[in-house]
């Protein structure tokens, strides 16, 4: 495989990765009120509780931080992929050490 093809393949892979990352959602720390989301509640003025919202409703709400999702599989998978990547880099460095001629490897 020529150097030009390898460079083009690397650039294509990098561009594809960046294009895929474009669609990863981001977390925004904005407060969504019932009027923004279009959700109506039964505790509004129609139910006779008055037009003023409660003090707790108007204050910014933090995200719920409970036990949540077990992250152990993500940790194991990430570690495995990191090890796999390190192995590929090591393999690549060892291959490039033979002069790049593609001939027989020198005796160790």
Keywords for this structure?
elongated; 108 residues; mainly alpha; 4 helices
Walk me through the structure.
This protein has helices at 3-22, 34-37, 55-58, 72-96. It is mostly helical. It is built from four helices and no strands. The chain is elongated, with a radius of gyration of 28 Å.
In a nutshell, what does this entry contain?
The chain is mainly α and 108 residues long. It has 4 helices and no strands.
Blueprint (SSEs and pairs):
Layout: H1 3-22, H2 34-37, H3 55-58, H4 72-96
Question: Which percent band covers the strand fraction?
Answer: under 5%
Percent helix, as a range, is 40-55%
**Could you give the count of β-strands?**
0
Helix tally equals: 4
* Span between termini: 26 Å
Protein structure class: mainly alpha
Task: Please tell me how large the radius of gyration is.
Answer: 28 Å
SSE run = HHHH
Taking the sheet with the most strands, its summary is: none
| Unreliable sequence segments | none
Overall average pLDDT: 74
Given the C-alpha coordinates, what overall shape results?
Answer: elongated
């Amino acid at each position: 495989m020529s150097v030009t093809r390898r460079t083009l393949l690397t650039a294509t892979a990098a561009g594809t990765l960046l294009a895929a990352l474009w669609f990863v959602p981001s977390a925004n720390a904005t407060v969504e009120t019932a009027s923004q989301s279009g959700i109506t509640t039964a505790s509004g003025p129609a139910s006779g509780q008055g037009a003023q919202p409660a003090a707790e409703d108007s204050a910014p709400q933090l995200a719920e931080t409970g036990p949540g999702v077990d992250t152990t599989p993500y940790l194991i998978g990430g570690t495995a992929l990191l090890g796999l990547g390190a192995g590929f880099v090591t393999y690549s460095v060892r291959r490039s050490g033979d002069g790049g001629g593609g001939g027989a490897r020198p005796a160790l």
